[in-house]
Amino acid sequence: MKAVILAAGKGTRMKELTNEVPKPMLHVQGRPILEQILEGLLAAGIPEVCLITGWRAEVIEQHFGDGSRFGARISYARQVVQDGTGKAPEYARSFVDDSSFLLTYGDILVKPDTYQRMLKRWHEGEFAGLLTVTEGEDVTKGGLNFFDERFCLTRLVEKPNAAQLEELRATGWLKPGAPAWYNAGIYLFRPSLFDFTAKLPKSPRGEYELTDAISAMIAAGHMIAGLKIEGRWVDVRDPEVLAGLR
Prior knowledge:
13 strands, alpha/beta, two-stranded antiparallel sheet, 26% helix, 9-stranded mixed beta sheet, 8 helices, globular
């Protein structure tokens, strides 16, 4: 198992805080977010990591180097064009090779044992992917996910608007009292993911969406496991969230 961390974006919602550093290098309790993610991956036995860098890439590369001082083996890939989450993992294609890999955004903090729980779930079946979810978030800001009785993904709707949510209720997808599963942004994949990211069209937002690739995998009959995040899950999306963590 390898790991790929998406850390190329500037994080425009952070305003002046990311003028000099990329968002994953902002400090939470005295340490960069990215360093805390790496620590959790290492604890799960995943030392081989590829960091997809872009905005202020040199800040990340100078801090982590080859990873040896952290006990990791770190590679880098530079994403020059910011055209969506669907294409970003492809920059790590040669690094991944024929290995399964954990994929995470570089601004999501979880309890370190989350990665270990993901690996445990991964080994429970012949899955092509695994998608983590959480409850209690505003699904209009992320992905809304639906699962079968085995907690395998059956459908996902990216950033549904009010009309879509009403239709999902009317058609029985969203049931009263049932959890609305929000995409937590941490995944496991086999390299077969790249067969689907390579064929992605741009979404109505003008970007390549990772969730569209996952939907295509489901449509092609691939099994995507689900896993509920236990305990801490923080998307460090804006200055208010960041301030609450310090």
